[in-house]
Amino acid sequence: MEELLHYVWKHRLLPLGPLLTTDGREVEVIDPGLHNRNAGPDFFNAKVRLGGTLWVGNVEIHQRSADWYQHGHDRDARYNNVVLHVTGLADADVLTEDGHYLPQLVLHVPDDVKEHYEELLHTDKYPPCYKIIADLSPLLVHAWMAALQTERLEQKTQAISQRALQADGSWEDAYFQTLARNFGFGINGDAFEQWARAVPLSAVGKHRDDLFQVEAIFMGQAGLLQPESVPERYRADALAEGYFARLRNEYLYLQHKFQLQPIDHALWRFLRLRPQNFPHIRIAQLATLYYERRTSLSALIECRDVEALRQLLATHVTPYWETHYTFGSESTKSSKQLSKASADLLIINTAIPMLFAVGRHRQKEELCDRAFDLLEQMRAEKNHIITMWQECGLPVRNAGDSQALIQLKREYCDRKDCLRCRFGYEYLRASR
Q: How far from 423 is each of 41, 120, 427, CA to CA, in Å?
Protein backbone atom coordinates (compact mmCIF):
# COMPACT_ATOMS: atom_id res chain seq x y z
CA MET A 1 0.00 0.00 0.00
CA GLU A 2 2.97 2.34 0.50
CA GLU A 3 3.53 2.30 -3.26
CA LEU A 4 -0.07 3.50 -3.71
CA LEU A 5 0.58 6.35 -1.25
CA HIS A 6 3.57 7.36 -3.39
CA TYR A 7 1.35 7.30 -6.44
CA VAL A 8 -1.45 9.36 -4.87
CA TRP A 9 1.08 11.97 -3.68
CA LYS A 10 2.98 12.10 -6.98
CA HIS A 11 -0.14 12.53 -9.12
CA ARG A 12 -1.98 14.64 -6.55
CA LEU A 13 -4.95 12.28 -6.44
CA LEU A 14 -5.64 13.73 -3.01
CA PRO A 15 -8.85 13.32 -1.02
CA LEU A 16 -11.39 16.13 -1.15
CA GLY A 17 -11.47 18.46 1.81
CA PRO A 18 -8.69 20.07 3.86
CA LEU A 19 -5.40 18.27 4.54
CA LEU A 20 -4.11 18.62 8.09
CA THR A 21 -0.91 17.64 9.88
CA THR A 22 -1.18 15.60 13.05
CA ASP A 23 -0.71 18.82 15.05
CA GLY A 24 -3.57 20.58 13.23
CA ARG A 25 -1.77 22.70 10.62
CA GLU A 26 -3.40 22.98 7.20
CA VAL A 27 -1.37 21.50 4.33
CA GLU A 28 -1.40 22.88 0.79
CA VAL A 29 0.54 20.83 -1.79
CA ILE A 30 1.95 23.29 -4.32
CA ASP A 31 4.46 20.88 -5.92
CA PRO A 32 4.81 17.23 -4.84
CA GLY A 33 8.47 17.26 -5.90
CA LEU A 34 10.60 15.00 -8.08
CA HIS A 35 10.09 11.29 -7.46
CA ASN A 36 13.34 9.65 -6.39
CA ARG A 37 13.65 5.90 -7.08
CA ASN A 38 17.19 5.68 -5.68
CA ALA A 39 18.56 5.95 -2.14
CA GLY A 40 17.45 8.96 -0.14
CA PRO A 41 14.12 10.74 0.44
CA ASP A 42 11.19 9.73 -1.78
CA PHE A 43 10.55 13.18 -3.30
CA PHE A 44 13.06 15.98 -3.85
CA ASN A 45 12.39 19.72 -3.88
CA ALA A 46 8.73 19.59 -2.95
CA LYS A 47 6.83 22.80 -2.18
CA VAL A 48 4.24 22.64 0.59
CA ARG A 49 2.51 25.31 2.66
CA LEU A 50 2.14 24.34 6.30
CA GLY A 51 -0.12 26.56 8.34
CA GLY A 52 0.51 29.49 6.00
CA THR A 53 4.31 29.04 5.83
CA LEU A 54 5.90 27.91 2.56
CA TRP A 55 8.45 25.09 2.88
CA VAL A 56 10.73 23.85 0.12
CA GLY A 57 12.50 20.55 0.72
CA ASN A 58 12.15 16.80 0.60
CA VAL A 59 9.19 14.55 1.42
CA GLU A 60 9.37 11.01 2.78
CA ILE A 61 6.43 8.59 2.60
CA HIS A 62 5.75 5.46 4.68
CA GLN A 63 2.80 3.20 5.31
CA ARG A 64 3.37 3.65 9.07
CA SER A 65 5.33 6.34 10.91
CA ALA A 66 7.32 3.69 12.77
CA ASP A 67 8.82 2.63 9.43
CA TRP A 68 10.95 5.80 9.65
CA TYR A 69 12.94 4.12 12.41
CA GLN A 70 12.87 0.63 10.91
CA HIS A 71 14.52 2.06 7.79
CA GLY A 72 17.15 3.89 9.82
CA HIS A 73 16.23 7.40 8.62
CA ASP A 74 16.69 8.78 12.15
CA ARG A 75 20.40 7.93 11.78
CA ASP A 76 20.82 9.18 8.21
CA ALA A 77 21.80 12.81 7.60
CA ARG A 78 20.32 12.65 4.07
CA TYR A 79 16.90 12.90 5.67
CA ASN A 80 17.60 16.08 7.63
CA ASN A 81 16.19 18.16 4.74
CA VAL A 82 12.80 16.42 4.87
CA VAL A 83 10.10 19.06 5.51
CA LEU A 84 7.06 16.75 5.65
CA HIS A 85 6.54 13.10 6.54
CA VAL A 86 3.53 11.57 4.75
CA THR A 87 2.12 8.39 6.22
CA GLY A 88 -0.88 6.12 6.04
CA LEU A 89 -0.89 5.64 9.83
CA ALA A 90 0.68 7.99 12.40
CA ASP A 91 1.77 5.56 15.11
CA ALA A 92 4.93 7.42 16.23
CA ASP A 93 6.57 10.84 16.26
CA VAL A 94 9.35 11.20 13.69
CA LEU A 95 12.77 12.54 14.67
CA THR A 96 15.58 13.43 12.23
CA GLU A 97 19.28 12.70 12.71
CA ASP A 98 19.93 16.32 13.74
CA GLY A 99 17.20 16.21 16.40
CA HIS A 100 14.16 17.86 14.74
CA TYR A 101 10.62 16.51 14.96
CA LEU A 102 8.92 16.47 11.56
CA PRO A 103 5.36 17.52 10.80
CA GLN A 104 3.30 14.54 9.63
CA LEU A 105 0.41 14.29 7.20
CA VAL A 106 -1.83 11.23 7.42
CA LEU A 107 -2.75 10.68 3.78
CA HIS A 108 -5.89 8.66 3.16
CA VAL A 109 -6.13 7.08 -0.28
CA PRO A 110 -9.46 8.15 -1.80
CA ASP A 111 -11.98 5.30 -1.87
CA ASP A 112 -12.45 5.43 -5.65
CA VAL A 113 -8.68 5.25 -6.27
CA LYS A 114 -8.30 2.38 -3.81
CA GLU A 115 -11.23 0.53 -5.40
CA HIS A 116 -9.83 0.91 -8.91
CA TYR A 117 -6.38 -0.16 -7.75
CA GLU A 118 -7.84 -3.32 -6.21
CA GLU A 119 -9.63 -4.01 -9.50
CA LEU A 120 -6.36 -3.71 -11.41
CA LEU A 121 -4.67 -6.14 -9.05
CA HIS A 122 -7.39 -8.76 -8.78
CA THR A 123 -9.66 -8.70 -11.84
CA ASP A 124 -9.74 -11.98 -13.77
CA LYS A 125 -10.11 -10.42 -17.23
CA TYR A 126 -6.91 -9.52 -19.01
CA PRO A 127 -5.70 -6.83 -19.28
CA PRO A 128 -7.34 -5.51 -16.11
CA CYS A 129 -7.71 -1.99 -17.55
CA TYR A 130 -9.74 -3.25 -20.52
CA LYS A 131 -12.77 -1.06 -19.63
CA ILE A 132 -11.08 2.20 -20.60
CA ILE A 133 -8.79 1.13 -23.48
CA ALA A 134 -11.20 1.93 -26.30
CA ASP A 135 -11.91 5.41 -24.89
CA LEU A 136 -8.31 6.55 -24.47
CA SER A 137 -7.27 9.54 -26.56
CA PRO A 138 -5.15 8.70 -29.63
CA LEU A 139 -2.54 11.24 -28.48
CA LEU A 140 -2.14 9.51 -25.09
CA VAL A 141 -1.96 6.06 -26.69
CA HIS A 142 0.62 7.20 -29.24
CA ALA A 143 2.81 8.85 -26.61
CA TRP A 144 2.79 5.79 -24.32
CA MET A 145 3.38 3.36 -27.21
CA ALA A 146 6.34 5.45 -28.40
CA ALA A 147 7.82 5.42 -24.90
CA LEU A 148 7.32 1.65 -24.58
CA GLN A 149 8.90 1.04 -27.99
CA THR A 150 12.00 3.00 -26.98
CA GLU A 151 12.07 1.25 -23.60
CA ARG A 152 12.05 -2.15 -25.31
CA LEU A 153 14.90 -1.20 -27.65
CA GLU A 154 16.89 0.18 -24.73
CA GLN A 155 16.34 -3.07 -22.85
CA LYS A 156 17.58 -5.11 -25.80
CA THR A 157 20.52 -2.73 -26.16
CA GLN A 158 21.57 -3.53 -22.60
CA ALA A 159 21.54 -7.27 -23.38
CA ILE A 160 23.58 -6.74 -26.57
CA SER A 161 26.07 -4.47 -24.81
CA GLN A 162 26.50 -7.10 -22.11
CA ARG A 163 27.28 -9.72 -24.77
CA ALA A 164 29.88 -7.40 -26.31
CA LEU A 165 31.42 -6.85 -22.88
CA GLN A 166 31.64 -10.59 -22.25
CA ALA A 167 33.23 -11.01 -25.69
CA ASP A 168 36.08 -8.62 -24.83
CA GLY A 169 34.41 -5.73 -26.62
CA SER A 170 33.68 -7.60 -29.86
CA TRP A 171 30.44 -6.31 -31.34
CA GLU A 172 30.80 -8.84 -34.17
CA ASP A 173 30.59 -11.63 -31.60
CA ALA A 174 27.69 -9.86 -29.87
CA TYR A 175 25.81 -9.72 -33.18
CA PHE A 176 26.43 -13.39 -33.91
CA GLN A 177 25.26 -14.37 -30.42
CA THR A 178 22.15 -12.22 -30.71
CA LEU A 179 21.36 -13.65 -34.13
CA ALA A 180 21.92 -17.19 -32.89
CA ARG A 181 19.73 -16.66 -29.84
CA ASN A 182 16.84 -15.55 -32.01
CA PHE A 183 17.36 -18.49 -34.37
CA GLY A 184 16.16 -20.50 -31.37
CA PHE A 185 12.77 -18.78 -31.76
CA GLY A 186 12.06 -18.83 -28.05
CA ILE A 187 12.17 -22.53 -27.18
CA ASN A 188 15.90 -22.98 -27.79
CA GLY A 189 16.97 -19.36 -27.36
CA ASP A 190 19.11 -19.94 -24.28
CA ALA A 191 20.77 -23.02 -25.79
CA PHE A 192 21.55 -21.18 -29.02
CA GLU A 193 23.13 -18.28 -27.16
CA GLN A 194 25.27 -20.66 -25.10
CA TRP A 195 26.25 -22.46 -28.32
CA ALA A 196 27.18 -19.17 -30.03
CA ARG A 197 29.44 -18.24 -27.12
CA ALA A 198 31.15 -21.62 -27.53
CA VAL A 199 31.83 -21.02 -31.24
CA PRO A 200 35.23 -19.28 -31.59
CA LEU A 201 34.63 -17.09 -34.63
CA SER A 202 38.32 -16.25 -34.90
CA ALA A 203 39.07 -19.95 -35.35
CA VAL A 204 36.10 -20.62 -37.64
CA GLY A 205 37.20 -17.68 -39.77
CA LYS A 206 40.34 -19.57 -40.75
CA HIS A 207 38.12 -22.15 -42.48
CA ARG A 208 35.41 -19.82 -43.70
CA ASP A 209 35.90 -20.75 -47.35
CA ASP A 210 34.96 -24.38 -46.68
CA LEU A 211 31.26 -24.79 -45.86
CA PHE A 212 31.74 -28.41 -44.80
CA GLN A 213 34.30 -27.40 -42.18
CA VAL A 214 32.11 -24.53 -40.97
CA GLU A 215 29.21 -26.92 -40.56
CA ALA A 216 31.44 -29.43 -38.81
CA ILE A 217 32.53 -26.86 -36.20
CA PHE A 218 28.98 -25.52 -35.78
CA MET A 219 27.43 -28.97 -35.34
CA GLY A 220 30.30 -30.22 -33.23
CA GLN A 221 30.22 -27.28 -30.83
CA ALA A 222 26.49 -27.89 -30.44
CA GLY A 223 27.28 -31.38 -29.15
CA LEU A 224 25.30 -32.84 -32.06
CA LEU A 225 28.20 -34.89 -33.46
CA GLN A 226 28.41 -37.08 -30.39
CA PRO A 227 26.85 -40.50 -31.16
CA GLU A 228 24.76 -40.35 -27.98
CA SER A 229 23.13 -37.11 -29.24
CA VAL A 230 21.42 -39.11 -32.02
CA PRO A 231 18.20 -40.82 -30.84
CA GLU A 232 18.77 -44.52 -30.55
CA ARG A 233 16.16 -45.35 -33.19
CA TYR A 234 18.12 -43.28 -35.76
CA ARG A 235 21.66 -43.96 -34.60
CA ALA A 236 22.38 -46.96 -36.83
CA ASP A 237 21.06 -45.15 -39.91
CA ALA A 238 23.07 -42.02 -39.08
CA LEU A 239 26.29 -44.00 -38.84
CA ALA A 240 25.48 -45.96 -42.00
CA GLU A 241 24.81 -42.84 -44.10
CA GLY A 242 28.37 -41.62 -43.76
CA TYR A 243 27.63 -37.89 -43.55
CA PHE A 244 27.49 -37.96 -39.77
CA ALA A 245 30.81 -39.84 -39.60
CA ARG A 246 32.48 -37.45 -42.06
CA LEU A 247 31.34 -34.39 -40.13
CA ARG A 248 32.38 -35.99 -36.85
CA ASN A 249 35.85 -36.90 -38.12
CA GLU A 250 36.35 -33.37 -39.46
CA TYR A 251 35.18 -31.88 -36.18
CA LEU A 252 37.49 -34.10 -34.10
CA TYR A 253 40.42 -32.85 -36.16
CA LEU A 254 39.37 -29.20 -35.76
CA GLN A 255 38.51 -29.71 -32.10
CA HIS A 256 42.05 -30.88 -31.43
CA LYS A 257 43.51 -28.11 -33.57
CA PHE A 258 41.66 -25.29 -31.77
CA GLN A 259 41.14 -26.96 -28.36
CA LEU A 260 37.37 -26.72 -28.70
CA GLN A 261 34.88 -27.64 -25.97
CA PRO A 262 31.31 -28.43 -27.14
CA ILE A 263 28.19 -27.64 -25.14
CA ASP A 264 26.04 -30.40 -23.67
CA HIS A 265 23.72 -31.80 -26.36
CA ALA A 266 21.07 -32.31 -23.66
CA LEU A 267 20.47 -28.54 -23.66
CA TRP A 268 18.56 -28.79 -26.93
CA ARG A 269 14.80 -29.15 -26.75
CA PHE A 270 12.75 -31.00 -29.34
CA LEU A 271 9.42 -31.59 -27.63
CA ARG A 272 6.50 -29.93 -29.46
CA LEU A 273 8.92 -28.32 -31.94
CA ARG A 274 8.05 -28.26 -35.62
CA PRO A 275 10.77 -30.10 -37.56
CA GLN A 276 11.86 -26.93 -39.39
CA ASN A 277 12.78 -25.49 -35.97
CA PHE A 278 14.98 -28.42 -34.97
CA PRO A 279 18.46 -27.20 -33.92
CA HIS A 280 20.12 -29.20 -36.71
CA ILE A 281 18.22 -27.23 -39.37
CA ARG A 282 18.72 -23.85 -37.72
CA ILE A 283 22.45 -24.48 -37.23
CA ALA A 284 22.79 -25.62 -40.85
CA GLN A 285 21.09 -22.38 -41.93
CA LEU A 286 23.43 -20.34 -39.73
CA ALA A 287 26.42 -22.17 -41.18
CA THR A 288 25.33 -21.16 -44.68
CA LEU A 289 24.80 -17.55 -43.61
CA TYR A 290 28.24 -17.46 -42.03
CA TYR A 291 29.91 -19.11 -45.03
CA GLU A 292 28.28 -16.58 -47.37
CA ARG A 293 29.51 -13.71 -45.15
CA ARG A 294 26.04 -12.53 -44.26
CA THR A 295 26.47 -12.58 -40.48
CA SER A 296 28.84 -9.61 -40.34
CA LEU A 297 27.90 -6.36 -38.66
CA SER A 298 29.03 -4.30 -41.64
CA ALA A 299 26.66 -6.23 -43.92
CA LEU A 300 23.81 -5.49 -41.51
CA ILE A 301 24.58 -1.77 -41.31
CA GLU A 302 24.62 -1.52 -45.12
CA CYS A 303 20.94 -2.57 -45.26
CA ARG A 304 18.72 0.48 -45.65
CA ASP A 305 15.26 -1.07 -45.86
CA VAL A 306 13.26 -4.13 -44.87
CA GLU A 307 13.68 -5.88 -48.21
CA ALA A 308 17.48 -5.59 -48.01
CA LEU A 309 17.36 -7.17 -44.55
CA ARG A 310 15.17 -10.01 -45.81
CA GLN A 311 17.69 -10.71 -48.57
CA LEU A 312 20.55 -10.57 -46.08
CA LEU A 313 18.90 -13.18 -43.85
CA ALA A 314 17.60 -15.41 -46.66
CA THR A 315 19.28 -18.76 -46.18
CA HIS A 316 19.16 -22.43 -47.10
CA VAL A 317 20.84 -25.67 -46.08
CA THR A 318 23.44 -28.03 -47.52
CA PRO A 319 22.17 -30.99 -49.63
CA TYR A 320 22.13 -33.49 -46.75
CA TRP A 321 19.70 -31.35 -44.76
CA GLU A 322 17.37 -31.00 -47.72
CA THR A 323 16.31 -34.58 -46.98
CA HIS A 324 16.82 -34.69 -43.20
CA TYR A 325 15.69 -32.90 -40.05
CA THR A 326 18.07 -34.80 -37.78
CA PHE A 327 20.93 -37.22 -38.43
CA GLY A 328 19.63 -40.55 -39.68
CA SER A 329 15.98 -39.49 -40.06
CA GLU A 330 15.16 -39.02 -43.74
CA SER A 331 12.44 -36.59 -44.84
CA THR A 332 10.84 -35.32 -48.02
CA LYS A 333 13.28 -33.23 -50.01
CA SER A 334 12.98 -29.45 -49.53
CA SER A 335 15.37 -26.51 -49.55
CA LYS A 336 14.35 -25.64 -45.97
CA GLN A 337 14.68 -21.95 -46.60
CA LEU A 338 13.92 -19.51 -43.84
CA SER A 339 10.25 -18.52 -44.17
CA LYS A 340 9.29 -14.87 -44.65
CA ALA A 341 7.56 -14.87 -41.26
CA SER A 342 10.69 -16.24 -39.57
CA ALA A 343 12.90 -13.75 -41.39
CA ASP A 344 10.67 -10.89 -40.25
CA LEU A 345 10.89 -12.06 -36.65
CA LEU A 346 14.67 -12.09 -36.95
CA ILE A 347 14.59 -8.55 -38.35
CA ILE A 348 12.38 -7.34 -35.48
CA ASN A 349 14.26 -9.14 -32.70
CA THR A 350 17.84 -9.07 -34.02
CA ALA A 351 18.58 -6.71 -36.88
CA ILE A 352 16.64 -3.68 -35.64
CA PRO A 353 17.80 -3.89 -31.99
CA MET A 354 21.36 -4.40 -33.23
CA LEU A 355 21.19 -1.25 -35.36
CA PHE A 356 19.82 0.67 -32.39
CA ALA A 357 22.48 -0.71 -30.03
CA VAL A 358 25.33 0.08 -32.41
CA GLY A 359 23.88 3.54 -32.96
CA ARG A 360 23.89 4.12 -29.20
CA HIS A 361 27.42 2.69 -28.85
CA ARG A 362 28.89 4.71 -31.72
CA GLN A 363 26.72 7.77 -31.01
CA LYS A 364 25.26 7.62 -34.51
CA GLU A 365 21.66 8.82 -34.32
CA GLU A 366 21.15 7.88 -37.98
CA LEU A 367 21.28 4.19 -37.05
CA CYS A 368 18.85 4.68 -34.15
CA ASP A 369 16.44 6.58 -36.40
CA ARG A 370 16.70 3.83 -39.00
CA ALA A 371 15.74 1.26 -36.37
CA PHE A 372 12.52 3.16 -35.58
CA ASP A 373 11.77 3.67 -39.28
CA LEU A 374 12.18 -0.05 -39.98
CA LEU A 375 9.77 -0.95 -37.19
CA GLU A 376 7.16 1.36 -38.69
CA GLN A 377 7.66 -0.22 -42.12
CA MET A 378 7.00 -3.76 -40.91
CA ARG A 379 3.71 -5.43 -40.20
CA ALA A 380 2.72 -6.05 -36.62
CA GLU A 381 3.57 -9.44 -35.18
CA LYS A 382 0.76 -11.95 -34.76
CA ASN A 383 0.55 -13.59 -31.36
CA HIS A 384 -1.80 -13.92 -28.40
CA ILE A 385 -0.48 -10.74 -26.77
CA ILE A 386 -1.29 -8.57 -29.78
CA THR A 387 -4.67 -10.25 -30.27
CA MET A 388 -5.54 -9.54 -26.63
CA TRP A 389 -4.91 -5.80 -26.99
CA GLN A 390 -6.72 -5.60 -30.31
CA GLU A 391 -9.78 -7.21 -28.75
CA CYS A 392 -9.72 -4.41 -26.16
CA GLY A 393 -10.00 -1.86 -28.96
CA LEU A 394 -6.38 -0.82 -29.21
CA PRO A 395 -5.18 -0.24 -32.81
CA VAL A 396 -1.98 -2.09 -33.77
CA ARG A 397 -0.63 -0.69 -37.03
CA ASN A 398 2.94 -1.91 -37.34
CA ALA A 399 5.79 -3.79 -35.67
CA GLY A 400 6.62 -0.74 -33.57
CA ASP A 401 3.18 -0.98 -31.98
CA SER A 402 3.40 -4.74 -31.46
CA GLN A 403 6.82 -4.43 -29.82
CA ALA A 404 5.45 -1.71 -27.54
CA LEU A 405 2.53 -3.91 -26.49
CA ILE A 406 4.78 -6.89 -25.81
CA GLN A 407 6.84 -4.61 -23.56
CA LEU A 408 3.68 -3.37 -21.86
CA LYS A 409 2.43 -6.87 -21.03
CA ARG A 410 5.74 -8.34 -19.90
CA GLU A 411 7.14 -5.40 -17.95
CA TYR A 412 3.95 -3.88 -16.55
CA CYS A 413 0.86 -6.14 -16.78
CA ASP A 414 2.58 -9.41 -15.83
CA ARG A 415 4.27 -7.68 -12.90
CA LYS A 416 1.08 -5.89 -11.84
CA ASP A 417 3.06 -2.66 -12.11
CA CYS A 418 -0.02 -0.63 -13.01
CA LEU A 419 1.17 2.38 -11.02
CA ARG A 420 3.95 3.01 -13.55
CA CYS A 421 1.66 2.51 -16.56
CA ARG A 422 -0.04 5.42 -18.26
CA PHE A 423 -3.08 3.27 -19.01
CA GLY A 424 -3.16 2.33 -15.33
CA TYR A 425 -3.03 6.02 -14.39
CA GLU A 426 -6.05 6.72 -16.58
CA TYR A 427 -7.89 3.83 -14.98
CA LEU A 428 -7.18 5.06 -11.45
CA ARG A 429 -8.40 8.58 -12.20
CA ALA A 430 -11.34 7.47 -14.37
CA SER A 431 -14.02 8.37 -11.82
CA ARG A 432 -12.48 11.62 -10.55
A: 27, 11, 6
